[in-house]
Amino acid sequence: TCPSQVSATPSALKIYPNPVQANGSISVELGQDMQSANIEIFNMRGQLLKTVKPAGLLSSIPLPFPVGIYLIRVKERAAVVAIE
Fold it and tell me: Which strands make up the sheet holding 25-29, listed edge to edge?
């Protein structure tokens, strides 16, 4: 189902680098209003690879996957922000 209201915006967070290097990591900077967010990482086929509950507003998430572009979905309560 689609959330009825999206209060978060892509500018409220930063995710880098993308594309990711082999066996690298991504850094995620969450906005203040996204402190209890969950982060989901998908491959380009739409397969869920990893779900992370960040420990704070800045997290480094190891990705033991091949070089590539990944889809990142940040879920905060009813808000969902997806970034390619």
Answer: 14-16, 25-29, 58-62
Cβ of 50: how many Cβ atoms within 10 Å? 14
Cβ-contact 21, 66 below 8 angstroms: no
Q: Write out the H or E segment, with its range, that includes residue 59.
A: strand 58-62
> Using one digit for the tens of pLDDT, what is the confidence trace for 13-45?
788 887 888 888 889 888 887 878 899 999 999
Coil, helix or strand for 35? coil
Among 1, 6, 13, which residue's Cα sits nearest to residue 39? 13
Which pTM does this prediction carry?
Answer: 0.74
